Amino acid sequence: MAEIETLSSKIVYQNRWMKVHEDKIKRASGAEGIYGVVDKPDFVCILPIEDGHIHLV
Questions:
Q1: How far apart are the C-alpha atoms of 11 and 53, rounded to whole Å?
Q2: Residue 35: which H helix or E strand, with range?
Q3: Claim: this prediction has a pTM higher than 0.70
């Protein structure tokens, strides 16, 4: 069995720049959960790091 099995998937938000979907998953332990995914082509992430901490805005 795969470590994580996708049980279902649904789009929860979509516009012309990005799509967000939620997957209902089942872990190898049998526990179920939700896994969120952001699909966004052509983007850049800039992470300001200071004293070993990442600042998110």
A1: 32
A2: strand 32-39
A3: no
